[in-house]
Amino acid sequence: PRAEEGASLKRRFKSLSYWSSAEHDRFLHALALFRAPQHQDSVGLGQGVAELIAGHVETRTVSQVRSHAQKYFLKLQRRQEREARCGAMRCTG
């Protein structure tokens, strides 16, 4: 029975590192729904939010959601820093 459960989980959750655009859209929707206001300006999700997002996305584990969120927030942070440096000019690097 335990081996069958493991095989079922492998089929249910992708092992690929790339998120599809549909998964990412569901992630963003869940982020807007479940992320607490006090965490909006930080890189963290808040306690229990990764579990809620994983339930909403349905095809990713809590660990995968945490990793995706971390990468997503760092990307946003880099974009904001680049825009602050460049101002209205378009930077290329």
Structure characterization notes:
This protein is mainly α and 93 residues long. The protein contains four helices and no strands. The chain is elongated, with a radius of gyration of 16 Å.
Short description:
This protein is 63% helix and 0% strand.
- The shape is elongated
Structural class: mainly alpha
Kindly report how far apart the N and C termini lie: 53 Å
Uncertain regions spanning at least 5 consecutive residues: none
Largest sheet entry: none
Helix content: 55-70%
Quaternary organization: single chain
Number of strands: 0
**Count of helical stretches:** 4
Percentage of β-strand residues: under 5%
Radius of gyration: 16 Å
**Element-by-element helix/strand order:** HHHH
Q: If you average the pLDDT, what whole number results?
A: 82
Layout of helices and strands:
Elements: H1 2-12, H2 21-34, H3 49-57, H4 62-86
Helix pairs in contact: 2-3, 3-4
